[in-house]
Design goal:
Length: 129
């Protein structure tokens, strides 16, 4: 299965500020997994919502959240509030400290393994309310 060109939304302060340091390795692992992408850093609370909404509205059909549970929540809410009529897929590379979401849905907590899984054809439908 071919994954469309993605928008990756990176929260550099996730994981007690460790994500910024890990990002060069994560971005290389994503490329090694065959993902073509553009990325943007979040700049504060709520910014991932804006970035995801804009990306989905601009036609990105695949968004990847790199961060913790808060980042995943914001990206999901941005997708849901977009004006796009297309189905948008959310991939997750967890770099947070809690990682409740990835644990509950079976996404690997190890970011190196998660990077390989973002191009997997496996999809999980989640009821958001």
């Amino acid at each position: 299965m071919s994954v469309p060109h993605a928008k990756v939304i990176v929260n550099p302060v996730a994981g007690a500020y460790s994500t910024r340091r890990k990002w060069p390795l994560i971005s290389q692992r994503l490329r090694d997994a065959g993902l073509s992408f553009d990325h943007e850093y979040t700049e504060g609370v709520g910014h991932a919502i804006e970035l995801a909404r804009a990306a989905a509205s601009d036609g990105y059909r695949y968004l990847v959240a790199v961060g913790g549970d808060g980042t995943v929540n914001e990206v999901a809410n941005g997708i849901l509030s977009s004006t796009s009529s297309m189905r948008t897929t959310l991939g997750v590379v967890s770099t947070g400290t809690g990682s409740d979401f990835v644990r509950s849905v079976g996404i690997p907590r190890d970011y190196a393994i998660a990077c390989s899984s973002v191009t997997s054809p496996r999809r999980l439908l989640i009821d958001v309310g």
